Amino acid sequence: MKYKIISKIKEKIYKYKCIIIFINKKYNKINYYYKKIINKNIKINKILNKKPNIYKIFNNKQYIYLIVYKNTKINKHIFKKLVIKSFKIINKKNYNTICLFIKNIKFKNIYWKIFNFVKIIEYKTYKFLKFKTKVSKKINNIIYFKINSNQKKKSIKIIKNSLIISKGINKTRDLCNMPPNICNSDYIFKKTKKEIYGKNIKISFLNKKQMKKLEMNAYLSVNKGSNNKPIIIKIKYNNNTKSEKPIILIGKGITFDSGGISLKNSNYMHEMKYDMSGAAVVWGIMYIINKLNLKLNVIGILLCAENLIDGKSTKPGTIIKTLSGKTVEIINTDAEGRLLICDALSYINKYNPKIVIDIATLTGCCLIALGNKISALITNNKSLSKDLIKASKKSNDNIWELPLYKKYNKYLKSHIADIKNCSENNYAGTITAACFLNNFIKKYKWAHLDIAGTAWNKKGPTGRTVYLLINYLKNKIKNKKKYNV
Ligand SMILES: [Zn+2]
After folding, report:
1. Which residues have C-beta under 5 Å from ligand 1, the single-atom ion?
2. 3-state secondary structure of 124
């Protein structure tokens, strides 16, 4: 789909193959030319009194759609519904040119409407067809937003930014959709090098040998049963003064999680390719902030590894010494994400971060606690929590804060090591996982987003938390207005 702007007063709208007009009783100002045509075919006043519906008129080789909506106050939810109604029209056939009168939806300003319209359509039209040998013909429509001429310049920028963000979200979904026989650590590294680049970007990595030297034993214990190599990908984005401490985003990137020796049930095990969703989210964010040229210093850390079964796999009961020096008794090899993250949380101290946020499909318990519509937030800092919740509301990407309840550390007490990697009961699994991680935090502000329930649904990967964190990061910029995101 392509998007353009029309703003000339005497624009020859009849040259467009399809016209979409939103209308309700209060806001029924329609272009004079169309009013005449519509009135010839249907009585506007009559349909405005009926239930909300879509009316189609075919006139002089042109399809005219009237989307009638209720007089109730519009909110984000109703706006989305209206966009989805137009999506059904837009996505049905190759009209080629579509003119859309978005002004008549009386909600927010025109830029907000254009930004979100593009974002919703791009999200909806996403398909993952890489492995289909037969693909049906693509719908290639150009959508023209009819607006006032003084809004043109900003609207063009808005479309551009919305497309960058949508592309980043859809690339995150692509990464999650990639099958585990292809999408391993090496694949993610190569894709990062190929697609995230520019004068502000520096990409480097830590390989197995370097991790061994550093004694990142918790991290390495996860990948022991795999023939694919573990790797930590570091994407440094510097677009602010050197003195500005970086914000660090850490993403869990288990490219396949069998559970290891603590083997998972085979039902739905194929879904465990999504256990790298946290890394994919960080990937998408780094792609977007680089394209938007945001004035920030951010480091994206992708923790890539694979959790498989083999003679070499880590056995439950194993004790390892983490990078921090603390020893961990591994009770369950399926609680592997925290073993990657705990070493990463120690490693990143060298960057002297201001804020650290990790994003991970960490606990199945998160689904029990919050279902598949809400991600869990756990943090050691109140203002960070406030900022993330604010960004979540703006993005329509729900999160709910769970407490970092330190008394639950008792579930992680080991008789023979400093700490266990998980509790032996299932109580408050999402919180105890965060308690485990908290043992490795030094002086920085830290937030943990558990996306185990939200990263995918039955249709596939969702890209959840990418836009949320983009909004969070944008709010960290002083002159954020000029970015229009
Ligand atoms: Zn696991």
Report:
1. 257, 334, 336
2. helix
Backbone region of residue 88 per phi and psi (left: phi > 0; alpha: psi in -120 to 50; beta: other values): alpha
Ligand 1: centre distance to CA 417 (Å) = 21
> Does 374 share its domain with 238?
yes
Q: Is 338 a catalytic residue?
A: yes
> CB-based contacts of 206: which residues, under 8 Å, 6+ apart?
214, 216, 231, 232, 234, 347
Cα–Cα distances (Å) from 19 to 42, 61, 468, in that order, read 16, 11, 33
User: Using H for helix, E for strand and C for coil, what is the string for 383-406?
Assistant: HHHHHHHHHHHHHCCCEEECCCCH
Same domain, 108 and 178: no
Kindly report which listed range (31-35, 74-78, 302-306, 358-362) carries the lowest average pLDDT score: 31-35
485 domain-assigned:
no
DSSP-derived 3-state class of residue 297: strand
Helix, strand, coil share of the chain (percent; to 5): 40, 20, 40
Q: Which of 338, 445, 464, 476 is catalytic?
A: 338
Q: Which residues pair with 357 in a beta bridge?
A: 249, 447
Q: Are residues 50 and 191 in the same domain?
A: no
CA dihedral 185, 190, 194, 197 (to 10 degrees): 60
139 & 184 share domain: no
- Provide the domain limits for residue 85: 2-149
| Burial class of 109 by CB neighbour count within 10 A (0 to 12, 13 to 18, 19+) | exposed
The structural domain count of the chain equals 2
Residues 232, 97: one domain? Answer: no
- What's at 243, amino acid-wise? S
**How remote is the CA of residue 260 from the centroid of ligand 1, in Å?**
8
Catalytic residue from among 152, 264, 394, 480: 264
Separation in Å, CA 387 to CA 324, 390, 391, 402 = 29, 5, 6, 15
Contacts of 163 (CB under 8 A, 6+ apart): 3, 118, 122
Alpha helices in 269-321 (DSSP H): 277-292
CA of 336 to the centre of ligand 1 (A): 5
All residues at 6 or more sequence positions from 438 whose CB lies less than 8 Å from its CB, including other chains: 380, 404, 406, 446
Note the pTM of the prediction, 2 decimals.
0.96
The tens digit of pLDDT for each residue in 400-455 reads: 999 999 999 999 999 999 999 999 888 999 999 999 999 999 889 999 999 999 99
